[in-house]
Amino acid sequence: MRWLPPSSPLTRTQVIATYAISTGTLAGLTLALAGCGGAGKQDVQVMSFTPAGPIDKAESIVIRFDKPVVGEERVGKPAEPTTVAVTPAFSWTGFWQDRRTLVIDPSAKLAGSTKYEISLTGELAKRTKDFEFTFVHKPIAVEGVWGVDSGMLPPDGDLPISFNQPVHPADAARHCKLVGDAGDLAFVVGAGAAAANLTLRPARPLGSGTSYTLSCVNLVGAGGNLPLAQPYSLAVSTRPALEITSIEPEGDDIAADQVALTFNFTTPVEVEAARKAIRSTPAIPGLERGYISGDGLVYTVTADLETRATYALEVSGLVDTFGQRQLKPAKHTFKTGDARPRLSMERGIYALEASAKGYPVWSRNIGKYYIECATIPKERVVQLLTTDMNYDPWGGNDDDKPLDWNKLKVRAKTTSVKNAVKNKWQLADLDLGKACGSTAGARGVYLAEVRSDEIVPDPDRGWLSPRRNRVLANVTDLGVLIKTGTASASCG
Questions:
Q1: What does the pLDDT average to over 278-290?
Q2: Which of 386, 417, 445, 484 has the fewest CB atoms within 10 Å, i.e. the most exposed one?
Q3: Which residue intervals of 256-387 are DSSP H helices?
């Protein structure tokens, strides 16, 4: 072993190296050098850090190293103010969670739309080769138009725009604009405090019923340093003048039964305003009892009309929900043809006084219809009512599915009724006792089905013209109406 002269003091590393060489433990030499570090050499790795991306609210900054970087005595103790540097600066407190984990807690409110840089300083910076990372607090976002329908903007009004954080009005005016077919339209630069909801005034009035694109680029939140990550765009349009775009039905041969009259508007209207503005010649009963669609753009009323008649509809004096007045009346004519074949009667479970003329069945434009009927013995009534048969009077009677009389264990009798009058409702008072083959007189419980093959069901309104109409009728002196639910015994 070679000793150095006394005038040359040994460093800790030289002592370890000398001992390692003398003993042949080169592995010990390597470990010792790595543990002590060397000037300008990285000997510590950052294994993880948070936050690692955009955040919406302040949270702890946590940096974890691959090996201990402080002594055990520092665990749980405050971190030195010079441990990290933050840009832009904010107040913080920190501590060592363990020998490898540094936790920094912001103690001041972070600015929105801001990119922060966190960097290690001092000895930690040297040992990690100046490690640093960034995160963004609450990136700026345009949330759209607020308080108004983006498709019904006022042509001569302001445009309310919403952001996810306060924005200076002047910045919003400089970085947002309306793009249209006639070119770009800027906003007037205004004063005022920063706010999340701003109202911007276009530099000139917008066109009526015109489409635009709201565009924002490079916009930064109040006090921030990071603009929009991507350009923002939203299709908007101004409301048109109030007009009636269409009135239906159209044609010269409209079936007169339950005609759906619809009036379409360019802007929304209230139902009472529509009812007051619409008239018909000849008068249509119930024209004022229609309803308005959810968006206020369509008024609909359904009515029975006269056959082979010409109707003139007019809409005038209409005012929409924005206060716009209809500029000129809208007129529309159509003609009805023959009525469609229909049967109308009480369906479901029904009670009929024995003194009545009979069970009323109305028919129109049907040459012949059939009554298939059976007497139900008293001991079979409960069994019949507990089957899966549907007595719903609103059309849930399996219109094209005939009754299975054999399954019901009763004998049915079929009779027919003929009509010859065109386009007029005909009333037939059916004697159910006779029609069902009762031997005990008119009184009793009868299951009847009235049907006609001449009826063509409406595919969109099956309730309007069912082929089969079913009723369980109790002909009695008691006058009791049996109901199986809230919608029994209704007229079809």
A1: 96
A2: 386
A3: 271-277, 378-385
